[in-house]
Amino acid sequence: MDFSPYKALLNRLIPLSYQQDTETLLAGLLPDADAQTRYQLAAEINRLKAPCLRVLDLQQLFPEQCRQVFHRGLNHMLPPKLEQRFMQLLGQYNGDYTRGLYETLLADLAAMRKQPALFNATPWHQPGFGTRRKEPRVQFVTPAELHLEDGHIQVNTLDISVSGIMLTVPPGLILPQKVSVSFPALAELPEFACLAEPKCFQLTQLPVSAKEQEKTQRQERAALQRIEPDSAWQEALSLFIEQNRARYGQNAEDLYSTALAQCWGQTLLESGLGQSLFFDEQGELQEILCNRFGKKLLEYWCHEQAGDLLPVLLPPERILAMAARQHEPVFLYGFKLKGKKDSYYFAAEQSQLLQKQLLQQFICEGQRAGTLQLYHLSIRPVLFTDQITENLDLLGKERLSPLKWQLWLTPLPAPEPRTLLPANGRLLLPWLLTSPAKQITPVLLRQSPARKETRFRFETPVELLLDDKPLHGASEDISVAGMKLMLPQPVELTLPATVHISLPELNKLSPDWNLKKLPYRVVNISQGGKVMHLHAIQGAKGHGGSRFFSALLNQNQDKLRARAEGSQQPAWMRWLIRQALQQLSGPAFLLGRNDGGFYVQGSLASPVRQRLMTMLTDDKRLAQLGLLITRQLLQSMASALQRPDGKSHLVTELWITEKADQTSLLQVNPAAEQQQQLMAGQDRVTVCLAAVNRLQLRQLTLNVPEWNQLAEVSLYKTQLLEQNLAELALQCQIFNITDLARARVQLNGPAAAPAPPQD
């Protein structure tokens, strides 16, 4: 039934129904209505008066305005307007938090979001790291006893891990830096009796933002870390967490923040300007993490014949020289000159060209050839501290172990001199690149499955013969050409290796097939040696196992459950992605758009660019894009990207002049004369480049491992994340190009360096 015609009447009836009978009220106010209508209206009133248990947490939409609203055991996070409305509705609903109150607040929220949105500030996110906790934990409430000098105090736990706990403490209680803790309730169980003996813990700071820390202090929480080693406690807590992890082990808030940051980082990698490259200790190029835009970037450096010019563009000596001065970004110029018989490639750093006074000549030659390219290079050492390295298989470790340096290669708009110097390519011979090097295969963000044929989940005993010693295991999935084998104990093998397996149970059921000592090649080992990935070795008459499984699958496909054949992301691939995100060449912003306009959804930090981070951070240490880009400028850039001219990115220069004891002066794309005046002045000038590109959700296929875990733990958080991603509209990357702008001003200035003498 459509209740919209009776909406005003229902709002009047609900407060009255707490004092009078609903049927009597309906009969008096709707004497002409039939019995069915009055019955449905009464049922709707009872539904709206039913208790509601859904928590209203609007921190993602209103990060700065939200504050805690506690009501009968539920902690809501609401902005002041909705908090006032919440209190008003409580009076109408007899002080109860009901479904009607919840739905009314959602309707008010929808109306608020249609109003002009603030260009809001958000916390800086570190997208490369996983969950904040590096060890398993459970959200479990149990009594804990604090042994203080003046007596014992009993408190409750909020979550428990092997090396730490979080407690709720009485208001006003100040804990010492070191305190002894025991678990009297858990110690009553036989296997946890050792937890009755107090152990020393140390008070620690919670790894949260300033806003969350203020909220935590209001709730009187304390985080403790165990500093007294004890093997019995270690085993007891590990056993307790393992027993309760299935029910209490996942924290929806941690998973939500991790999945959200990973989705933002994945969006940046897939549609950003930059390309992430990895080098070994000798400076040799090993891996290229390729995104959508990188296809054009890589095609330029793909030689007409065999080979790839990227290792020549970035030779080992250049990489090692950059590694010695990591804090300085490098601007690299390059162009291709077509000759009568062959093409010639030139590349040089801006600092080298300035030192030789050949920058203008290099740019003129590149502009004359029509192929001038400019790149922003940022290099950092590879960090092997990510927890995902523990999950790497044998092939992943072999592939990633040589990596030493990670570099972002970002194309920038090439400068255009006002006047071209006479052609003289011989002056650029020192920067002529040598012949192409070996072929480099880019790593695509979307990996295809290793086994092309359909795999089926099938578990059967398997006997593995390794060095004439039998090992017993079980299959997890099978296909015509391969098998995934689970072993009870880890094994060590040097890949590639050949093993022989037997299928005892299947051999009994199918005596006509010889399923003993089937030759398989071990193509990979994962999970510390407990999982083997096998591929059948085809003989002259065909592999016995392949022929048997082909017949088995043809007759029983309807009984077996096929594994999903979608794109998969191996552990080494996830490590490359997170490693690239840990070393961003500049901060980035993800912006959403709704009926109220643009708003900042997420802010990805770049720890290696502290000056940029400081410039984009407000007094509360929150990321604030509005300090650099106005809403009007952003709207004009978004409108320009909507034009059908094929542009995927739009760049804008922002010149910031900092004067002593005065507010900064911001100018957008100043004219050449203004640039010269700003650079010639005494004030400090910083030039930023904002690269904005338009995002469409249908172009983004996010592959985040934490997503499935979040869907299992909290459907509400998953729906909220899906809504945020559906509103993604723009992405903005910020680069500091002050050195580039200064060199360009000198290039076109009235007192430019004299042209080199002609040869």
From TrEMBL:
Pfam families: PilZ. It comes from the Bacteria. Residues 132-187, 451-529 form the PilZ domain. This is PilZ domain-containing protein.
